[in-house]
Amino acid sequence: MMTNLKKQRHTVIFDLDGTLLNTLEDLAGSVNYALRENGYPERALFEVRRFLGNGIRYLMRCAVPENISDEDYEKTFKCFRSHYLVHCLDKTKPYEGMIVLLEELKTRHFKLAIVSNKLQPAVEELNARFFSDVVNVAIGESKGVRRKPAPDTVLMALQQLNSTTEDAVYIGDSEVDILTAQQAGLPCISVLWGFRDHDFLLAHGAKVLVETPAEILQKIELPL
After folding, report:
1. Closest of 143, 155, 176 to residue 11, by C-alpha
2. What is the residue-wise DSSP string for 24-82?
3. Is the peptide bond before 149 cis (omega within 30 degrees of 0)?
4. 5 in a domain, yes or no?
5. Cystine design at 28: which of 48, 205, 208, 215 (Cβ 3.0–4.6 Å)?
6. Does residue 202 sit within a domain?
7. Closest Cα to residue 141, out of 149, 129, 133?
8. Which tens digits make up the pLDDT trace of 83-103?
């Protein structure tokens, strides 16, 4: 869909949630566990989907009632985080065709990385579980590293891969990913199987859209 990239790139930076992995059910499960434990109403799956993309603090800030105190929010957030670190692999799995894409990219000698607004331990665990054979660099939220859409995680990944912005492309599913790519100076491919839909992505500046993982390879290897 839409235009191809202007030049072939050899480094691919992937968002995690909604791009590589369908994490929605596990995130929603931990959100609702924390809400129940603290006496708050639970959230529907479509609501949690809408809250995703800006990190887990933003997710929980949206999920809790508006009028709770900072102290009660922190208690609920810690409950969510503890539960999610234990249950982040219960139902999470790669999107169909994604493992095939990553293996093909690796075979063609692309450098691959994951950047995420998830906590670093969760990113490491998920990468180890699903992608360790093909992805060597996986960066999440940690002290001193700004969350996306700040470019910190992308620039760290490029440094660790010994790559440059001129050689890389960013793949993501949300408006946060579009902004992240812009701030890092990378072109962005927006996927349509994640947490945002076609019209929403176009309205937030998407230039290249794909409907399947296989199309990513086509867009990268067929420059204008």
Report:
1. 155
2. HHHHHHHHHHHHHHTT-----HHHHHHHTTS-HHHHHHHHS-TT--HHHHHHHHHHHHH
3. yes
4. no
5. 48
6. yes
7. 149
8. 998 898 899 999 999 999 999
